[in-house]
Amino acid sequence: MSTMAVQSGRIRILKEGSGGLEGRVGPVVYWMFRDQRVKDNWALIHAVHQANKANVPVAVVFNLFDQFLGAKARHLGFMLRGLRQLSPAIQHNLQIPFFLVRGEAEDTIPDFLKECGASLLVTDFSPLREVRRCKAAICNRVSDLVTIHEVDAHNVVPVWVASEKLEYSARTIRGKITKRLSEYLIDFPTMEPPTRKWIGKNQLIDWDGLIAEVLRIGAEVPQLHWCEPGEIAAMEVLMGNKNGFLTKRLKNYSKDRNDPSKPSGLSGLSPHLHFGQISAQRCALEAQKLRKSYPQGAWEWARKTLLDHANDKREHIYSRELLEKAQTADPLWNASQKEMVYHGKMHGFMRMYWAKKILEWTRGPEEALEICIYLNDKYEIDGRDPNGYVGCMWSICGVHDQGWQERPIFGKIRYMNYAGCKRKFDVDGYIAHVTKLVGEIRKRKAESLLSEKEKVQHH
């Protein structure tokens, strides 16, 4: 099957070049950002299709921000190790050059387009305010001849198709998405190489040196070893014969998904989904196949209720530093914070409890949300993600939720407490699990430091 045109509803025109698409003579450039994969990537499919249609070359460029919302070694190391695998897959398998630039994208991307004489820039989609601002700046800085397309390669149903307004709850948007699934939940076409070769040499990237440099910069939050980056590893987590989510662990999902003491009940895909190393659409398609093989911002009410209770007396007030060090009177909360700091990922149910207790233990909702986002982005491997921000807002500000029985501090925001958790799952088992996990990680770190020290003494 040849490359096909991507559905028009999946594409937005951010800027229409004065030359128009039909008169295009310059190459097509795909600025890869959120969807870091070769397979099942609608943005890459669109870029190649447009290049072949105009009989011009195509290239992929990735911009490495010197600082992006506080990303540390944990996040940048995972991302760069994934890109190190992706680069040869693009260059050798698809015969498309892969370039890496560093700096602010509003400078580097227009410079790259000018240097290669590009006529079309394809970008993938991110709803983050900082990324939208960056794209607006790029639209203003590129030549009038350049057209810019944005492709939602991250969501099954494109955001702008799913709903044209701010939705008040998951219930109201779920039906809208379901109605469009037959149109957008479709198989991906086979990707074919471009018909025109890129003129010029491929960039030689010193991945080892780059990764080592980045790891030094953000060393305060070290890399993780339990999750392997890249497309191959992501598919193994989803479909692997040994411990794949759909193939081996799905049967326990409905029973264990809200039990933090049984983390094996979760998919474990969030790091790969966050960095776009696997397509959410691929996950849905594979789940759909499996199913067929079996028998059948804060809303006004929330803002008001939070402000009404902002000055309510708190039993505890903890600073950001004490929270970060997991030094509270709640052993369950401390365990969840340690799981995030050391393991880089917290069970989804605990993320809700964790955030709601921060609301309860800080001076007001603004401070609570600020601390929540800071800790989430610093330690979670899938930090700085739209889903993460929505999770914080759901827990603290009632986004996509409804009003509940009014109570001190929380107002009408959904309440969670230690006693409720004890009724739901084995709290002591979860704390013991985290304690063991942290001990093992600390032991490995101590052994690694000792080994490094012995090497230095030997030399």
Characterize the structure shown.
The chain has helices at residues 42-54, 73-93, 105-116, 129-141, 159-162, 170-184, 207-217, 231-239, 245-249, 253-256, 270-274, 280-292, 300-308, 320-324, 331-343, 348-361, 365-379, 386-397, 418-424, 427-458; strands at 11-15, 28-32, 58-64, 98-102, 120-124, 147-151. The chain is globular and about 65 Å long. The mean pLDDT is 89. Helix 15 (331-343) packs parallel to helix 20 and helix 17 runs antiparallel to helix 18 (386-397). By secondary structure, the chain is an alpha/beta fold. It folds into three domains: 1-153, HUPs (Rossmann fold), CATH 3.40.50; 230-292, Serine Threonine Protein Phosphatase 5, Tetratricopeptide repeat (Alpha Horseshoe), CATH 1.25.40.80; 300-441, DNA Cyclobutane Dipyrimidine Photolyase, subunit A, domain 3 (Orthogonal Bundle), CATH 1.10.579.10. Helix 1 (42-54) links the parallel strand 2 and strand 3.
Give the key terms.
Serine Threonine Protein Phosphatase 5, Tetratricopeptide repeat; alpha/beta; 7% strand; Rossmann fold; 459 residues; 20 helices; 6 strands; six-stranded mixed sheet; DNA Cyclobutane Dipyrimidine Photolyase, subunit A, domain 3; 3 domains
Distance between the first and last residues' Cα: 58 Å
SSE pattern, N- to C-terminal: EEHEHEHEHEHHHHHHHHHHHHHHHH
- Residue fraction in strands: 5-15%
Would you tell me the overall average pLDDT? Answer: 89
Q: What is the CATH top level name of the largest domain?
A: Alpha Beta
What is the percent of helical residues?
40-55%
What's the name of the CATH homologous superfamily of the largest domain? HUPs
Structure classification: alpha/beta
CATH topology of the largest domain: Rossmann fold
State Rg. 24 Å
Shape type:
globular
